[in-house]
Design goal:
393 residues; alpha/beta
Length: 393
């Protein structure tokens, strides 16, 4: 594992048990609400009427994981709902006498199959959209990546089912402070790779001697962590880069974009160091946070109230440009929405902001868009001129 020189400003102590956003701290929800009231504005308003907008509701489709598309030289991603994706890297070839194709490496990111994103299944944000398939229906995967430990990104019943169905053969890639949680759940310690911001590691596929390695880079995000009242900020949150076979893929986890002084500088740094990306997955909404407001027919009056921790659609487009992504798909919306209006609103705002900022649609170069839950997108890898791998004896 390697780590470039960097300060540890995101560490709030010397024991790796407390973390913070090292830039000018964004306002809290309470502070933002108080600011609106001070301006004579009420934090809530009636939900938008979107009946005549051309944007379409996200639906759930049965995934085929892009089986009809060629695997060689392409990166594929299937949206599993919320921030969950199955990413398939280009199928490698081995030069060992006659050329033979190996199965592609697959990475499962932030999976959640539970009905509620909560410590209990009788309360908390409830799914509006079901998973597109069962966990058993997923093709073979080699790595599970977690962005942070909020319940909508780290779901114990899902991890437990993976451990039961797939056994100890999967590697788990987690931010600093999360390894002990996985160990306590029965994941073998040697299968867990815990990383700090800017750390990188190259890992072979589990129980394989084919010589293929996948590189994971832990990157900053502007967010937080905690599964209860007493562990807030006790584990690190992160975004992730995955590289193999010339493919360069970015998953932003859950993140805000704005600080009190302007855009978070981390994303420009990520783009400068590691971009451009063939594919990125970026949140465009607050997920299930405060979804009960939408269930009452209301909406938060301004995205500014939560944009320190959750990027708005317009800010997600700016993040997309900072990281230099050729194709970016929106996530973290619709699955746990409190109403049909809240599920559609992020898509509407994204389309409006895309027009204003001059950004193309998803399938065009440097584009940004959305897909249905269960749908697969596939793009040619631009950074690879040679995808063959030499099998080591």
């Amino acid at each position: 594992m390697s780590s470039p020189p960097t300060n540890l400003a995101h560490h709030a102590d010397e024991k790796n048990t407390a973390f913070r956003n090292p830039w000018m701290a964004p306002k809290s929800l309470l502070e933002s609400g108080q600011g609106l009231l001070a301006q004579g504005k009420f934090p809530l308003q009636l939900a938008r009427r979107l009946h005549h907008h051309p944007a379409k509701q996200i639906k759930v489709v049965k995934p085929d994981f892009g089986i009809a598309e060629p695997d060689e030289g392409r990166v594929k991603a299937t949206w599993l709902g919320h921030a969950g994706f199955m990413v398939q890297l280009p199928a490698p070839k081995v030069a060992h006498g006659k050329m033979a194709e190996l199965q592609p490496t697959r990475v499962l990111i932030d999976p959640i199959w539970s009905d509620r994103a909560s410590p209990t299944q009788w309360a908390g944000p409830k799914r509006r959209l079901p998973p597109p398939c069962s966990l058993k229906d997923l093709p073979e995967f080699h790595f599970v990546v977690t962005s942070h430990n909020h319940y909508d990104h780290l779901d114990w019943p899902t991890i437990e089912k993976i451990l039961k169905d797939r056994g100890p053969k999967v590697h788990y890639i987690v931010p600093l402070g999360n390894k002990s949680w996985f160990v306590s759940g029965g994941v073998p310690p040697e299968r867990i790779h815990e990383m700090d911001w800017w750390d990188s590691v190259e890992l072979p596929r589990p129980d394989s001697n084919d010589g293929i390695k996948t590189r994971f880079i832990c990157c900053p995000a502007q967010h937080g962590s905690g599964r209860g009242m007493h562990d807030q900020g006790a584990t690190l949150w992160a975004s992730w880069i995955v590289q193999e076979g010339g493919a360069n893929v970015y998953h932003a986890g859950d993140t805000g974009y704005m600080t009190e002084t302007g855009p978070c500088p981390a994303f420009k740094e990520i783009g400068d160091k590691y971009g451009p990306f063939d594919l990125a997955m970026v949140p465009i909404w607050r997920g299930g946070s405060l979804s009960f407001i939408a269930a009452m027919g209301m909406r938060i009056a301004s995205n500014d109230v939560l944009d320190g921790l959750h990027a708005s659609p317009a800010q997600a487009l700016m993040l997309h440009k900072d990281i230099r992504s050729r194709h970016t798909v929106g996530m973290h919306f619709a699955t746990f929405a409190g109403s049909d209006v809240e599920a559609l609103e992020p898509v509407v705002e994204l389309m409006e902001a895309r027009d204003k900022q001059g950004v193309n649609d998803l399938r065009d170069e440097w584009g940004f868009g959305v897909i249905d839950v269960g749908a697969t997108i596939s793009f040619e890898v631009q950074g690879a001129t040679e995808l063959e791998r030499t099998q080591t004896a």
